[in-house]
Amino acid sequence: MLAPDELYPAVLGWVHALGVAPAGAGAASAANLVTAVLAGQSLRNAALARTQVSARTVRARQRYKRVARALTRSWLSSAEVTPSLVRAALALVDDPVPHLAMDTVRCGAWESITVGVVWHGRVLPIGWEVLPYPWPKGVFTSAVVRLLWRIAGAWEGERRPHLVADRGFPSLRLFRALEQLGWGWTIRLRAKLTVGIDGEARALADLVRASRPGVWTCRASTYGTGRQRVAGHLVIGRGDALPILPRHQANPSSARQRRRRQAARQREVRGKHPDRRTSSAEQTDGWVLLFTSHADWLPACSSYATRWAAEGSYRDGQGGYDGQHGWDLEDALARLADPAVVDHVIGLWAVGTLLQSWIGHQAGRSAAPDAIHQIRAQWTTTGRLSVWMRGRFALTDLSGDLHPWILQTLAAGAQRLRSAPHPAPHTLVHAA
Q1: How much is the pLDDT for 265?
Q2: Rounded to whole angstroms, how far apart are CA atoms 402 and 410?
Q3: Is 339 in a helix, a strand, or coil?
Q4: Which helix (H) or strand (E) covers residue 387, if one does?
Q5: What would the mean pLDDT of 230-242 be, rounded to a whole number?
Q6: pLDDT at position 273, please?
Q7: Nearest to residue 301, comparing CAs of 382, 187, 386?
Q8: What is the pLDDT of residue 426?
Q9: pLDDT in tens, 329-366
């Protein structure tokens, strides 16, 4: 396992390449925090204090104060670090149409709206907005639109992203913003909404009742029916109509688990309206309603499936695959009272995720050295590890055999970022 003082120079190279902090003491402080996360695998202040780079004579209380003081500075805020993270994601992710997964994660009294670039089944967070929970009335949609415009202001090149999100996000303001930005989108709708089809307002619940299970449809429609309506396509189908499963889930045990999960879901839906004989939610549950810029249902479903990458990254940031190997994001944020510090801790999570995922990506490549393949074979019997978890196992490997390779991998990644074009000033006009 790499010691913090061995890891620190390589991390400092990434901080300089990203430009996430002013040169000098600012970059050194930011690199120290990121090094502490990668070495200690936790976002808790106590863990950061124990694993930061400092003289051995520095007492624990002073270390803790240094971490708390560093987290009050704005270097890792979404407003400042988003351009650097966007540039890094575009440099590392080779997809011709990058997918952006937008979702929310609640940690104690805070809810964070995050957007990340989908990469190998996880996301690289590039922007976020922090809201107190419960949300103050009327702030959620404004925060979402503000976040998208911030990311768009840093987006470079001809590759236009495709945004995917769940049914808690749709609004006319959101779709108008996506239309103005020229982005693609696939966003799930609630069955209680109304859309425009052939110039007429149609309730989605009625369209679901008229649909046939096993048949997916895609038709031109609009979100909204007034002058500000946004044109797109409506995809309707049942989520269980395409039983395409990974090989490790196509077995009787997984089938029993899916049946138990479906039965629990049906009980939950029936419990929402116990006084009604038949609940509309029970009738529409299981149906997928997507409003998309795709003109066909299959690419729309493929795009929407990438949304689950955000769920996996949230799990990595909190408890990990087993509740014990994550970064304690929820515990770290639940203790905080200052929204600015919450913002900065999420920024630390985003930058740390970027570096650890890069290491995991390189460790999983077929072109990796034979020694890496041999060590990787010791981590799991199935080989099914996320890019983030491979990075964790590499950083915490006790043999020490990976130390030179990790440092070389980080140096190569920093060089790749330095070669990426820097964002030019944008003249995007944020329409209210």
Answers
A1: 65
A2: 12
A3: helix
A4: helix 387-395
A5: 84
A6: 58
A7: 187
A8: 47
A9: 999 999 899 999 999 999 999 999 999 999 999 999 99
- Comparing 8-12, 71-75, 414-418, 421-425, the range with the smallest average pLDDT is 421-425
Report d(CA 172, CA 197) in Å as an integer: 16
DSSP bridge partners of 184: 162
CB 376 within 8 A of CB 390: yes
Q: Residue 264: exposed, middle, or buried by beta-carbon count in 10 A (0-12, 13-18, 19+)?
A: exposed
Task: Name the CATH superfamily, with its identifier, for domain 78-241+289-317.
Answer: Transposase Inhibitor Protein From Tn5; Chain A, domain 1 (3.90.350.10)
What is the spatial distance between Cα 313 and Cα 306, in angstroms, rounded to a whole number?
Answer: 12
What is the per-residue burial (b if ≥16 Cβ within 10 Å, else e) of 63-100? Answer: bbebbeebbebebbbbebbbbbbbbbbbbbbeeeebbb
Is it the case that residue 144 has pLDDT exceeding 60? yes
| Encoded tokens for 131 | 């809201």
- What length is written for the chain? 432
The per-residue pLDDT for 276 is 56
What is the end-to-end Cα distance of the chain in Å, rounded? 51
Q: Is 387 exposed, middle or buried (0-12, 13-18, 19+ CB in 10 A)?
A: buried
Beta strands in 56-109 (DSSP E): 99-107
Dist CA 113 CA 105 (whole Å):
7
The values of phi and psi at residue 424, to 5°, are -90, 155
Tens of pLDDT along 256-307?
Answer: 877 787 777 667 766 665 665 555 555 556 799 999 999 999 999 999 999 9
The CATH 3.90.350.10 domain(s) of the chain lie at 78-241+289-317
Q: Give yes or no for a contact between 335 and 108, defined as CB atoms under 8 angstroms apart.
A: yes
Q: Please give, one letter per residue, the 3-state secondary structure of 127-191.
A: EEEEEECCCCCCCHHHHHHHHHHHHHHHCCCCCCCEEEECCCCCCHHHHHHHHHHCCEEEEECCC
pLDDT at 2: 86
Which tokens go with 395? 């950083």
